[in-house]
Design goal:
The complex is a heterodimer of chains A (480) and B (443).
Chain A (H helix, E strand, L loop, with lengths): L1 H8 L7 H11 L6 E17 L2 E19 L2 E7 L4 H11 L15 E2 L11 H4 L2 H18 L5 E17 L3 E20 L2 E11 L9 E2 L2 E2 H17 L6 E8 L6 H8 L4 H5 L20 E4 L20 E6 L2 E2 L6 H7 L7 E2 L8 E2 L3 E4 L6 H5 L4 E13 L5 E13 L2 E6 L3 E5 H6 L1 E4 L4 E2 L4 E5 L2 E9 L2 E9 L3
Parallel strand pairs in A: 4-6, 10-17, 16-24
Antiparallel strand pairs in A: 1-2, 1-5, 2-3, 5-6, 6-7, 8-9, 10-25, 11-12, 11-16, 12-13, 14-15, 17-18, 18-19, 18-20, 20-25, 21-25, 22-24, 23-24
Helix pairs in contact in A: 2-3, 5-6
Chain B lengths: L2 H21 L4 E17 L2 E19 L2 E7 L4 H15 L33 H18 L3 E20 L4 E19 L2 E11 L8 H15 L8 E7 L1 H14 L2 H5 L20 E3 L22 E5 L2 E2 L6 H6 L14 E3 L6 H8 L2 E8 L9 E12 L2 E14 H6 L3 E2 L9 E2 L3 E9 L2
Parallel strand pairs in B: 7-12, 11-16
Antiparallel strand pairs in B: 1-2, 1-4, 2-3, 4-5, 5-6, 7-17, 8-9, 8-11, 9-10, 12-13, 13-14, 14-17, 15-17
Helix pairs in contact in B: 3-4
The chains are: A alpha+beta (480), B alpha+beta (443).
């Protein structure tokens, strides 16, 4: 893999390792402590089926190099969408000006990092013929229309990314990675009289498109996703107004892990904590969640959407325990924040592209399983909400307030799931809600691979997960 | 190089790409290309934090082979990459289905006049000047109140860009634009409660930005005002959206009346053309030719001429927003809304914010909205909120960790007043909005 990526990103542009060392040396003419070069080339395609026809297809290419120079807490950054020696040196000369002239350090000779690949390096765009991608979309559409002939609108989309990256840094880091990523989504619109409701489902990961045809419980995966979309639309068609106020909430397993991502994940990113801006700042070793709650961020999981073999700074990803049995253990770090806080990087340095600066980001963030059967958890509640499916969320890491919106939810009455209720926003305070987790299910699962996380205007793919959870008190923003 | 020359150069590239598409078998093609150069600098606790030099460009092309469409784009503007991009787009058109509604915009709708909208006011991109502004904003904020204990930083951005659009009907037009902004985010603490808030200023002309000291003071003031926030009991209360967040309400209206939502039957405002959706006094004007406007443009992203429109007249849904495709799906003509809206001016009932608070009497003034809990298909609305509790028109204490919920249909109809003090920092210019009662969930 290393040689292929090196050829595509360097040799084809007239560069070699000595030109990278020379470029890094240019940055060290100024008094910088660290610098890195990030070469990236990516291809992205998407296909959309709507009204039963293949309506649009698109293909995008991106290629460039980003140059970062760090001096203490200061960062200089420049990039070029043209990879060649002159453009690279220009970017280096711009970025290095963050520090005054008079370099004190030497560039270490570049040495290939050793790490394990967490996914295959096939190009998903090429691994399946275009005609077969079209057939897959049509198969999803046909399945939905056969299952529910009265359905009004069906939109199915398929997208794939093939990305190669190479990082070289003044600390001698040299790493490459090939990152495939695919995704399938389907969305249906159901109409009954005046009422219209949508349902959607999706999945993905660092696979080839064949993943969507793979067997799930005796049938192709895409059929299961199509059924889920139909199920959500049918449920919402019957939904009544959601209650409003503070009540016990049972969150389903898998995707509702959005809770963790918002309630604790962002607040445990190293940059916010170095700056003392997070509600979790300075709290390592303290109880920040109920007993039994263990949360990890794990970039090493095979083929997952949030996984990386190495992060965007060339650090191999890890299984990082963030919270263990309710006690805060550590933050997620990139190189800069790790150095400034005097800890080791954790493989969480990520960036959207060569044109963006890296920062500490999540990979796959999830809570470990507990001892309760999900039914047992629901049976403990007289009046509350069961929410097995969510849309996105948002957090204010300073106050700890976070929201996430249910996409499928039900009332719990006298220990039983009863009427479906309309989507509502749930709001809470991260550290408080984590202390109110009173029961943890034995059914831990990760989401199906559709998560996108935004921070400072940069989007990266992530995974979330959790077992079924009972939160004793959460504010539910319904209208009833 | 002079900006006119640079634009002419890009127009040349667009021409080449269109010709390439035709020679590869396309019957129609359209391309757009942009280039932006800028700096983005930030300070934290009075010292430089980041200095970024931005240089972005990209080309997107759509080709039509008969009624089959293919699209491709590239951020790599080398000759090889451009050729590959065109080839890919033509390739894709081989696999997409025949679609009678696809194709370029109708020729008679294409813009032919390109007045200077005064969007380009270049200054030298000097990181040092930007750093000074950021540091000054932060300093003013840190000095404002002793409860300001920390800073999330201040940042200054300056961007000079250009955009060119061309298609095989013959249009190949472009214009330059500039954009400057300064923002500051502070952290305050009191009795174990930590809060943050921010302020910003944006303009196409650098000298029209608010002063750094003012931005800093506003950020600090907003942060301190949040300290000691309480929840509210669950109940029904009148809600007023401060002008900082009120434009989001009209953003939801934009989604609901967009052609794409209509032909997909995914809007709660389907089949409502000409009907009452807002109170009778409410008008919304669209002004694409506003000089120096943040959303001004004489043509949309398909080359269709924009025009002044009264989007809402006397509270009636006067116009849906169409692109070429959605218009054909619905058997009407595009009205120039590919790529979004062009400066909306929301009508006002003339009161100051203070007068509106009096009019509300007792209720919730919302200054922050969180999350995406808005369903355009049904109009169901449920979002996280923070702000202030108001009694007899006077702010009593800050509020956090509540939700406001209702249905957009009712929220639009129940708008009781829109303030005269306008938010001017985006594509929607509106004053604060006093909505009738909404369901507030708290403790």
């Amino acid at each position: 893999m290393f040689n292929n990526v090196k050829t595509h990103l360097l040799t084809d542009s007239g560069l070699d390792l000595s030109s990278l060392e020379k470029a890094l040396g240019e940055i060290y003419h100024h008094d910088n402590d660290y610098a890195d070069l990030y070469f990236q080339s990516s291809q992205h395609e998407s296909w959309v089926l709507e009204d039963g026809i293949i309506k649009d297809g698109s293909y995008n290419i991106e290629r460039g190099v980003g140059v970062r120079a760090i001096s203490g807490e200061k960062t200089g950054f420049a990039y070029s969408d043209d990879i060649n020696e002159n453009a690279l040196l220009d970017a280096c000369r711009a970025a290095r000006t963050i520090a005054p002239t008079g370099g004190k350090h030497q560039v270490k000779s570049l040495e290939s990092a050793k790490y394990s690949s967490r996914y295959k390096d096939d190009n998903p765009l090429l691994a399946m013929q275009d005609a077969d991608k079209i057939s897959l979309l049509k198969a999803v559409d046909a399945y939905i229309r056969e299952k529910e002939p009265g359905i009004n609108q069906v939109v199915v989309s398929l997208s794939g990314v093939y990305e190669e990256i190479l990082v070289a840094a003044t600390d001698g880091t040299l790493a490459t990675d090939i990152r495939p990523l695919v995704r399938l989504n389907c969305s249906v619109l159901m109409e009954k009289g005046d009422r219209r409701e949508r349902g959607s489902a999706g999945a993905g990961g660092r696979h080839s498109y064949d993943f969507f045809k793979s067997d799930k419980d005796g049938r192709p995966y895409f059929e299961m996703l199509a059924d889920e979309a139909l199920h959500m639309a049918r449920v919402n068609m019957e939904a009544v107004a959601s209650p409003a106020g503070t009540m016990p909430v049972v969150l389903g397993n898998g995707w509702p892990g959005v809770l963790l991502h918002e309630a604790v994940g962002h607040g445990l990113e190293g940059d916010f904590n170095r700056k003392g801006a997070s509600t979790f700042s300075g709290r390592i070793g303290e109880r920040v969640a109920a007993k039994g709650v263990t949360v990890v961020d794990d970039g090493t999981m095979a083929d997952r959407r949030g996984s990386l073999s190495v992060d965007d700074e060339g650090t191999p990803t890890q299984h990082n325990v963030l919270i263990e049995d309710g006690i805060l253990k550590g933050y997620m770090q990139d190189k800069m924040n790790a150095r400034l806080m005097g800890v080791a990087p954790t493989g969480n340095g990520r960036r959207e592209s060569f044109a963006h600066l890296p920062m500490p980001r999540m990979t796959n963030t999830y809570m470990l399983g507990g001892q309760y059967d999900p039914q047992e958890i629901i049976a403990t509640i007289d009046k509350g909400i069961y929410a097995p499916n969510f849309a996105g969320g948002q957090v204010d890491i300073t106050s700890g307030k976070f929201v996430f919106s249910s996409a499928e939810a039900y009332l719990i009455e006298n220990g039983k799931i009863t009427a479906p209720v309309k989507g509502a926003t749930l709001i809470g305070n991260g550290p408080e809600v984590m202390q109110k987790i009173s029961m943890i299910g034995n059914d831990v699962a990760l989401d199906r691979g559709v998560g996108v996380c935004g921070k400072d205007g940069q989007s990266v793919p992530v995974g979330v997960g959790q077992p079924t959870l009972k939160v004793d008190e959460l504010t539910v923003g319904g209208t009833a | 190089m002079q900006i006119e020359k640079q634009i002419a150069e890009i127009q040349g590239v667009v021409d080449d790409v269109l010709n390439m598409a035709l020679s590869k078998g396309a019957t129609q093609a359209e391309a757009s290309m942009s280039k932006v150069q800028g700096i983005s600098v930030s300070s934290r606790m009075g010292d430089v934090e980041n200095v970024e030099f931005n240089n972005d460009g990209g080309l997107g092309i759509s080709v039509y082979v008969g009624k089959h469409k293919g699209s491709a784009s590239t951020a790599d503007l080398s000759k090889e990459a451009l050729a590959l991009t065109v080839e890919k787009a033509v390739d894709i058109a081989r696999y997409t289905s025949e679609d009678p509604c696809t194709g370029l915009a109708d020729e008679d709708l294409i813009a032919t006049e390109f007045p200077d909208l005064e969007l380009y006011h270049p200054i030298e991109l000097d990181p040092q000047k930007g750093i000074e502004l950021a540091i000054e904003a932060e300093k003013a904020a840190l000095e404002y109140d002793e409860r300001i204990t920390n800073s999330d930083g201040a940042s200054y951005n300056a961007n000079l860009g250009m955009r060119v659009y061309g298609n095989t009907h013959g249009i190949n037009a472009g214009y330059p634009s500039s954009r400057y902004s300064l923002s500051c985010m502070m952290i305050g603490a009191q009795d174990g409660d930590m809060q943050r808030d921010y302020a910003y200023t944006v303009s196409r002309q650098a000298h029209l930005l608010k002063s750094a000291a003012e931005v800093g003071r506003e950020a600090a003031e907003a942060t301190v005002a949040r300290l000691g926030a309480r929840k509210l009991p669950t109940g029904k209360v009148p809600v007023m959206l401060h002008r900082d967040v009120a434009s989001s309400l009209f953003g939801h209206y934009v989604s609901a009346i967009s052609g794409g939502s209509l032909y997909r039957r995914s809007s709660f405002l389907l089949d409502k053309l000409g009907e009452q959706v807002f109170p009778e006094w409410l008008n919304i004007e669209e002004k694409p030719f506003l000089k120096g406007g943040l959303a001004s443009s004489s043509f949309d992203s398909e080359g269709v001429a924009t025009k002044d429109m009264t989007i809402v007249e006397n509270g009636l849904l006067s116009h849906y927003l169409y692109t070429t495709y959605s218009a054909r799906k619905l058997d009407v003509k595009s009205n120039g809304h590919a790529g979004g809206i062009h400066n909306w001016i929301i009508g006002t009932t003339g009161q100051s914010d203070a007068e509106m608070l009096k009019e509300m009497g007792t209720g919730l003034l919302v200054t922050e909205l969180m999350g995406q809990g808005v369903n355009t298909v049904t109009g169901d609305y449920s979002r996280g909120a923070a702000g202030f509790w108001v009694e007899n028109g006077i702010i009593q204490y800050p509020v956090a960790e509540v939700t406001i919920a209702g249905n957009l249909k009712d929220m639009f109809m129940n708008i009781a007043a829109i303030g005269a003090e306008r938010e001017l920092r985006g594509g929607v210019q509106t004053g604060s909005v006093l909505i009738g009662e909404m369901r507030v969930a708290g403790s």
